Amino acid sequence: MPEMRFHIRWPDGLREACYSPSLVIKDHLAVGQDYPIDEFVSLSRLALGIASERVRARYGFPCGRAQAQLARIEDAARRQDGGTVHIEAFEE
């Protein structure tokens, strides 16, 4: 499976490279776009869930790295005080 990273900037200015085991993230987020935190978390949850299920279909188990990445996103989102998440780049 083609894994990738999507580079984001949180409202507090912190930059992060996030992992996805699939290119499906490109179907849900767009480079150069800003997403309200709740929307970003929801879209990430959807896309990483789909990616993890693709791993399950192929290998028989879900992607632990995708699940861990989602947990990091959810944790970081809770620490923000509103604002938007900016999608800086995709890296394949």
Description:
With 92 residues, this protein is of the alpha+beta class. The protein is built from two helices and four strands. The chain has a four-stranded antiparallel β-sheet. Helix 1 runs antiparallel to helix 2. The longest helix has 23 residues.
Shape designation: globular
Which strand order does the major sheet show? 2-1-4-3
Secondary-structure content class = alpha+beta
- Distance between termini? 11 Å
**Rg, alpha carbons:** 13 Å
- Largest sheet at a glance? 4 strands, antiparallel
Average the pLDDT over all residues and give the rounded result: 96
Give the percentage of residues in beta strands. 25-35%
Residue share in helix: 40-55%
